[in-house]
Design brief:
Layout (H helix, E strand, L loop, with lengths): L4 H15 L1 H4 L31 H37 L1 H16 L2 H12 L3 H27 L3 H8 L4 H37 L11 H8 L8 H31 L1
Helix pairs in contact: 1-3, 1-10, 3-4, 3-6, 3-8, 3-10, 4-6, 5-6, 6-8, 8-9, 8-10, 9-10
Length: 264
């Protein structure tokens, strides 16, 4: 647990910043001041200002609320929905299992980001539509993992004992199946946080995610890409925020996997 604690603390700090971003920003992240446009980092604007004179630090902080909170909510949705579908398919089998697994095969056959770009474009862009596009292609992975775990659990003696004891399907799923697949699902989700953040920011960078003036890290990088040589802080600040957040959650996922492996 000692090895896991620093990474949990780092992730907790990032989540704290995202949740309380409204109270942590030194300036209004949407207030324009053209007289102070593209000011380099200084004692007042620690990370400089953008082309509209908005404080970059404030926009990075408030952007964490958009990027990180949206990514965590999206991940929670696809992991829960996908795991439920996979567990039910693995437990029940039959035509429902065949139909849903063939559907998941179709989604998994396409490159994930390419499909997300096509889906987000078809839906019309916007943060909600970008999240919906990622959700459409995200659930099959968890469904496949959960189904495989349930199929392996069904062959164990305690599973037969639970059925013989008179437990119904719901009781078996919640008392004997989900507790035994939860660890694997949690590790997979922890390792996927960084991927979801990158994909959501990538769609925004391409103009298919958060729309101006919403402060979102990918959209901020898109807005500042033409100023990389003249005002590099505009794009470096949100890029660094993405790097730190993705690295933190990837390391947390690795340590969580090691910790749960040791527990078993």
């Amino acid at each position: 647990m000692k090895n896991l604690a620093p990474y949990l603390a780092a992730a907790g700090i990032l989540i704290f910043i995202a949740v309380f971003a409204d109270f942590l920003t030194p300036f209004d992240p949407y207030e324009q001041n053209l007289a102070n446009a593209l000011a380099p980092p200084n004692e007042i604007n620690l990370l400089g200002t953008d082309r509209y004179g908005r404080d970059v630090l404030s926009r990075v902080i408030i952007g964490s609320q958009t990027t990180l909170c949206a990514s965590l909510l999206l991940l929670a949705t696809i992991s829960v929905v996908g795991s439920l579908i996979g567990a039910i398919c693995g437990y029940k089998g039959g035509r429902l299992d065949v139909f849903l697994m063939r559907m998941s095969d179709i989604f998994l056959a396409f490159p994930q980001m390419v499909f997300a770009i096509a889906a987000a474009g078809a839906l019309g862009g916007g943060l909600l539509n970008a999240a919906a596009a990622l959700a459409i292609i995200g659930w099959p992975k968890y469904a496949r993992i959960a189904r495989g775990l349930v199929l392996s659990i069904k062959s164990l003696p305690y599973f037969d004992a639970a059925k013989m004891s008179g437990s119904n399907s719901v009781q078996i799923l919640f008392n004997h199946v989900f507790p035994n697949i939860l660890g694997t699902i949690l590790v997979t989700a922890a390792l996927d946080i960084g991927t979801i953040i990158m994909e959501l920011a990538g769609l925004s960078f391409l103009g298919l995610g958060a729309m101006p003036p919403t402060a979102e890290w990918g959209a901020m990088m898109n807005n500042g890409r033409s100023m990389l040589q003249t005002a590099p802080w505009v794009i470096i600040a949100p890029g660094t925020a993405i790097f730190i957040t993705v690295a933190t959650f990837n390391l947390l996922g690795d340590k969580l996997r090691d910790f749960l492996g040791e527990q078993r």
